[in-house]
Amino acid sequence: MSDPLTAAVGLPTTSVPSRPATGFWRRALRHRSFVLGAALVCLVIGSALLSLVWTPWPAYEIDIASKLKPPSFSHWLGTDSFGRDIVSLLLVGARSTILVGIIAVGIGLTSGVCFGLLAAARKGWTEELIMRMSDFTFAFPAVLSAIMLAAVVGPGMLTSITAIGIFQIPIFVRVTRGSANAIWAREFVLAARASGKGGFRITIEHVLPNILSILIVQATIQFALAILAEAALSYLGLGTQPPQPSWGRMLNDAQTLLFQSPMLAVYPGAAIAVAVLGLNLLGDGLRDLLDPRLARER
Amino acid sequence: MTAASQPLLDVNDLVQRYTLPRESLFRPPGQVLALNGVSVRIEAGKSLGVVGESGSGKSTFARVVMALERPTSGRVELLGRDLNQLPADELRRARRDFQMVFQDPYGSLDPRQTIVRIVAEPLTALERTDRATLRARVSAVLRQVGLRDADMDKYPHEFSGGQRQRIAIARALITQPKLIVADEPVSALDVSVQAQVLNLMQDLQEQFGLSYILISHDLAVVDYLCDEVAVMYLGRIVEQGRPEDLFDHPAHPYTRALLAAVPRARAGRVRRRRGAQAIASQSSAATGCPYISRCPLADQHCREAAPALRRIGETHLAACHKAEEVMALPAVAGEAG
Predict the structure, then answer these.
(1) Does residue A246 contact residue A240 with C-beta atoms inside 8 Å?
(2) Residue ranges of the ABC transporter domain (chain B) (predicted)?
(3) What is the DSSP annotation of B148-173?
(4) B82 within a domain of the structure (yes/no)
């Protein structure tokens, strides 16, 4: 009776070689949108880091005598209405952009994912309660929550971070719960239950790893949205306060001078576009690369 | 059947009722009896095949036996312990003795986990084991199912359907269980691979004295592996006995119909839909034989009294008033051509 068994050993088990651990980076470097996205994101992060040690001009130095200068060798992108160097402002502004993005998405991601996983694991009234609460939160636009918060605690970076963070929670709750529910319906979860694993271990060992790529992609998109929201709040005067520069504030300042020097609005706008585009491309690339079944190279 | 020793599995009068989603606010929600008084005993080392069409309750039976669902009523006793009365922690430890193999070898393995983690899952659920021991046990069990050590660190997508089902079987074997519940273990596989997996299951049975509960719609599969067969229809066992009893002298018209369907194995679509209709109407029709709408032999008596499962041979039970009449009919194989 051992014949079919030994015959079976000879089956084509050798056909697929195991992928080496370095495969991820090799594939990543060939993935065009990942490389481009990563480059743009690195550019933004690099500018923020650079601004900590060096800027062409002191970003806070007001020099009314040389206001609204066109691009030149000393001021590469010219100066604003206070005579501040645009390049320096953009570099320093990247700091608040990144800070707001990371903290706000961090708030949204951690609490949103926890609630979403809980909703999917417990079902029943727990799920119902969490989903209705997130609908409730979702009904308030970030700008409105920020205005309310600003009315209570005053405007500032912390206010905009909190408002954007809270606004992000229901989005992550929905994405997490939706994709986690799909995983809970899979047979390998049933197999885990048949092995004696409880809801918590199944969530940590099966559900979370399987939805992680979706969450990472969502996080990069939300990061981009957070940057836009931060810019919008700063533009409205609710976010980063002067004299601290941010891209949104620069847009706000440029607005009044739109006809005299329209380029003042273009620079921060382009910076925001680069950051958002970079994050979106990075998210797309990560989605492809994190799927072990998609060994496909683009 | 009358062994004095304790049976491996004793299932007693199992009922599982599902409530359907409410269709109207003013009508009570509909109910489906997925299991309607199922009782079976399995002696250690013996295997039971459960056959029936889609919707006959065989997968529900598997899930209830695996204690993945609580039955509405009835008992499932494994080695004398009622699984549904055990505290959660003890049930978890008891799971060492019964494991499951699923139908879909693509869906039952987590695509994000390596084979070593997948196969070791029943062990890691039970106890903390260090890495070296774990890998040694996985390697041993992988060799038993005809895979190699080198496969341990691969992912499921790198394997074919048959190999994946071997991995699933390895996972079920790793705790050295006494009972493996296999829900359609080969129906998702190519015919050529089916035979290999069935051979493997048979070898393992001989090697370890395993018992299987083999759920299938394919009578040939059950015949190959099982000592006893139960035919299910609408949540009841309508015929039960040794494979040779059932296949040579079917005593229930439904078993005959199943046997007649074998040569045209894939022509069962219409039949299945009719089965689904019968489930829906079943909750209202309380009296009479549940098979009446499809039975060519039904008469007034069948409409009035539901037949109970009764003994018609030494090891042969059937739930039909006309069992003797059915057995006297010419063999199905000749009929089917």
Answers:
(1) yes
(2) 20-259
(3) -GGGGGS-GGGS-HHHHHHHHHHHHH
(4) no
Q: What are the tens digits of pLDDT across the range B62-79? A: 999 999 989 999 999 998
Domain that residue A247 falls in:
78-289
B254 located within any domain: yes
Inter-chain touch A292–B111, beta carbons under 8 Å: yes
Does residue A49 lie within any of the structural domains? no
- Express each pLDDT in B79-135 by its tens digit: 888 998 899 889 999 999 999 999 888 899 998 899 999 999 999 998 888 899 999
pLDDT digits (tens, 9 = 90+) for B124-160: 998 888 899 999 999 999 998 999 988 999 999 899 9
Residues of B in contact with A194 (CB under 8 A): 66, 68, 95, 99-100
CATH number of the domain enclosing A168: 1.10.3720.10
Cα of B195 vs its chain's centroid, Å: 18
Rounded alpha-carbon distances, angstroms, from residue B70 to B16, B17, B214: 8, 10, 20
> Is B252 inside any structural domain?
yes
Contact B74, B12 (CB under 8 A): yes
A205 chain-B contacts, CB cut-off 8 A: 113
pTM here is: 0.79
Q: How many domains are there within chain B?
A: 1
Is this complex's ipTM strictly greater than 0.85?
Answer: no
Domain range for B319 is 248-332
Among B residues 179-218, those touching chain A with beta carbons less than 8 Å apart: 195-196, 199-200, 202-203, 206
- For residue A1, being part of any structural domain is answered with no
Nearest-CA residue of chain B relative to A205? B113
